[in-house]
User: What shape does this take?
Amino acid sequence: MKKLIAVLMGLMLLMGCCVAETAVTEDVIQDVGKVPIGSISINGAFNLVCGLPEGYRVQPLKMTRDQILAAIISSDPEAPVMQLSVAFDETYSDVMRMNDLDEEALALLESTFTEVDPTVEISEGETGLGTRLMIAKQTDEDKFNYIDFLSIYQGYFIEFVMVPSQTATDKRLTDEQLRMCVTFLTDLDFVPVGGAGTANQVSLAGKTYVANLSDYNAETGTMKAQLKEAITLDPSVMAELGKGYILEFGEQNIEVSTVETFEDGSVLVNDEVDLRPEGDVVRVFMYEAEYMETVAEISVKVPETAVFLDGIDPEDGQILDEPTTHTAAEFIQILSEGGENDPGFAVENTEITFNDEGELTQVRRFYTPWQ
Assistant: This one.
């Protein structure tokens, strides 16, 4: 989560250009219902949409898989400027809403405000849908006034800051403007993107995934699982390859400089990307390993009936002649404690399988020389 002072400094730098732009822009969005902001896809894949106060529009500032940063600016140079930040924090990946945090966790978040600005007023509120909000408000006439709202949804920190416009005659922010922020946060929607993201959005039933496994929680009986699938391309891409072509797959965008074709039909691009035709798809390999894309980062329940097949000796990390079979309890112990030479459970050496009800049935670990 960004420190408060960093957010405010960014806003102060932004406001000058925002005011100048709104003075010459006529196609301002005015109260037309929900408008798109951007997409995120780390702990669930979502499109963010929002309602806008009259006279305001969205100006995207930064868009990545784990963060959206956008300014909400008005055509009225006297109106306050707002900034929205939605950013994933792995520490809170299991937190559905801020309502789920205990008092100790809330106090820790409160300290992120007071450490930067000891005079800030901290209070609690909620959206129109009952989601808890932490509100930091600076009203000292001798200081820079602001209102900062903080909340959490599925591991994403939602921070919404309002500051007075640089050209505003009155720099004080009102309770009415505070309520406008609460309305904005009430209308902010995380719309799931079909087919990827969370346990509810990813098909687990009857599937096997390669996975990174970590952080077993004894209280909930769950572990963190990053599920991955191999990237495949349409065969038509093979005919388009040439110098200057942009090869796109997963998070990679590679400009083609060299292409080497082999007798088996495979192609080596830039001496690093190996494209291998296989049936109706082209499989992508980088540095000899098949390229994987994350489809979800979720918490997985480890039932007592789950079986662990281990092809690696956890004492020395070497390959076993025959895989050993372990109970769920033994798997949890190895996952939690490991050993000095234990290679852990990474996408390079781990598969997990779910039954038709989406329940974990098997973890399999196999030896790879590059683990």
Summary: Confidence is low (pLDDT under 50) at residues 2-6, 12-33, 194-201. The chain is about 15% helix and 40% strand. Helices lie at 4-24, 103-114, 175-187, 237-240, 328-337. The longest strand covers residues 208-217.
